Amino acid sequence: MAVAEEQPLLHQDIERVEPTVEQKRSPLPYRQLAIVYLIQFSEPLTGMVIYPFIAQLVLETGVTHGDPKTIGYYAGIVESMFFFSEFLTCLQWGRLSDYYGRRPVLLFGPLGLALSMYAFGLSKSFWQLCLFRFLQGMFNGNIGVSKSVMAELTDSTNRAKAFAMMPLMWSVADTLAPLIGATANPATEFPDVFGGITLLVKYPYFLPCAISGSLALLVFIFALFDLKETLPAKTGQLVSSQPRTEGYGAIGGEAPANPRDEPAPPPLTALVRSAPVRRVLVVYGFVAFFDMAMAALLPIFCYTSIADGGLGFSSRDIGVVLAVWGVYNVFFQLYAAPRIIDRFGAFKTQITTLLAIPLIFVLYPMENAFAKAAGSVNGAVGALIAVHLALLSLIYVGYGTIHMFIVDSSPSSNALGAVNGIAQTAGTLIRTFSPWVATSLFSLSVDRQLVGGKLVYILLGCAAACAVYTSVTLLPRRLRSE
């Protein structure tokens, strides 16, 4: 049975041709990649803009009945709605893109995100927040299609560079989102400028949502006029016009004389039974879990008082800290990430980035302990926070490499959308629960002082160590396209 699972799904992938000479690196189609990157940028921008003010917003809805210790539970629910709806829709988006093309499916994303962000900013109740957060995730469910487009725009000689740039979009969003989020409650924070605007007085969180939504709308307009179709069946080719090297589930085969002769996409059951796909999905599940667990936990930790186990930052403080880190992260991903992947390869890079996760869960209680000893956030705490955020930047590099493994596991070009859709479905299912798990564990640990309020870090740190061990055993040491 194991042998059967290892076999390619399509006959065209059975024979693997090894390159006999070193291939010249193909030039990247920067214009089309830039559009895809901008569409990817819309996801973290609209997703993370709420983090600086979500704790205060949840408190003001009244759902916590004035108890600040329960904020983590309800904030986690709001954050999880995004990924729950993405889980319900991303496989359908990916499958639709295999049949009807990448372009029409991708265009739905930024437009829907823009409209749902406007509505989120006008929400007053907890359940309205959940509803419009749910819609944001639904329209973002097509983000997996963007990885298919990137694979179809590149080949084995330049794909690593293209995917290494993916975390840069998250880095830019990490810079802008907290800055935008820090504009919440502008009528109170900046009364001379915004105090006379009735809309912003009545809806104090509308401004950051409107700014991020408008940026997503601009991305939609740009893509509407300039994004080209890449699905081979729609462009008259089976593979990209650039040369490809076949490999670990890689896209291969010659284009048929008649594009209509292209075989239908393989069934989802065959893809799910594929051993390479399953192994990569397990590792991607770990990456997805800790990605959102850390993103949700950090602002709640920072907002919580020092006495209760946090750092006692205000919403503005959180926005500033995250924005400063975002600036650093942009340069790190732009200049360091591609060189790290080129130098060490996808496997070593992936494992190294996973090793940074348990270290972060060691730093959380250390930061609070130092702050308690000093009575405030002093220089020593600031140094620990700097190390914490530097490790987060290193982890971001792994976001690009794990998607290289996912693309490399696809058995054929017309299965890319489905493979990325399956991965996105699995990832978003995990992301649905990971923010709630992380923030709820934090609230539970702090409220009941379990292991001195540190149980959350012990559990998540041990889980991260298991993720490293599992990834070492499951991932191939080399991509076959390397």
From TrEMBL:
Sorted alphabetically, which keywords does the UniProt record give?
Membrane, Transmembrane, Transmembrane helix, Transport
A cellular-component GO term for this protein: membrane
By its UniProt entry, which SUPFAM superfamilies does this protein fall under?
Answer: MFS general substrate transporter
Q: Which InterPro entries match?
A: MFS, MFS_dom, MFS_trans_sf
According to the entry, every stretch annotated as the Major facilitator superfamily (MFS) profile domain falls at 32-479
Q: What organism is the protein native to?
A: Schizophyllum amplum
The coiled-coil regions, if any, are none
Bilayer topology term: Multi-pass membrane protein
Top-rank taxon of the source lineage equals Eukaryota
Regions crossing the membrane? 34-59, 71-91, 103-120, 205-225, 281-306, 318-337, 349-366, 378-402, 414-434, 454-475
PROSITE patterns hit by this protein? MFS
Q: What name goes with this protein? A: Major facilitator superfamily domain-containing protein
* Annotated compartments: Membrane
GO MF, any single term? transmembrane transporter activity
